[in-house]
Design goal:
This protein is mostly beta strands and 134 residues long. The protein has helices spanning 2-12, 122-130; strands at 20-24, 29-33, 38-41, 46-50, 55-58, 63-68, 71-74, 79-83, 88-91, 96-100, 105-108, 113-116. It has two helices and twelve strands; from the N terminus they run αββββββββββββα. The two termini are 13 Å apart.
């Protein structure tokens, strides 16, 4: 489940016109999302992509999930989490698990900074940091 959401996060970011990066708390680049929708890990290996309609695919182009309007779903359309407009991240039970700040800082529920995603949409950053062991 965690890898599914990670791939979703990475793939969704592909809509950007330039490459975007997801970084850990110590600013180490973990993922890069290219303008063509390709998501690569720090070893430059493709891990997934997203289509224009919000369908998330793995590196083998198999559908593994969906993202739309702040709701993250798995391949069976079961909701696994939410990202509110203010950057609050919740699990499927609506429990707050963290925050994505406007400046790209990613914080856990105790407000400790755990990563950085400047220029990346909040819902995409939330997928990487809160639904995976990043």
């Amino acid at each position: 489940m965690k890898k599914f959401i990670l791939i979703i996060m990475l793939v969704v970011c592909s809509g950007m016109l330039r490459a975007q990066t997801i970084k850990s708390g110590d600013y180490t680049t973990k993922y890069t999302i290219s303008s063509d929708g390709t998501i690569k890990n720090s070893s430059y290996t493709m891990v997934g992509r997203i289509t224009g309609n919000g369908t998330v695919q793995n590196a083998h182009y198999q559908t593994i999930g969906y993202i739309s309007d702040g709701r993250i779903q798995d391949g069976s359309h079961s909701t696994v989490g939410y990202v509110k407009n203010d950057g609050t991240v919740q699990n499927s039970s609506y429990t707050t698990i963290g925050y994505i700040k406007d400046d790209g800082r990613v914080q856990n529920k105790s407000y400790s900074t755990i990563g950085h995603a400047s220029g990346v949409k909040k819902e995409w950053a939330a997928l990487v940091f809160f639904f995976f062991d990043f």
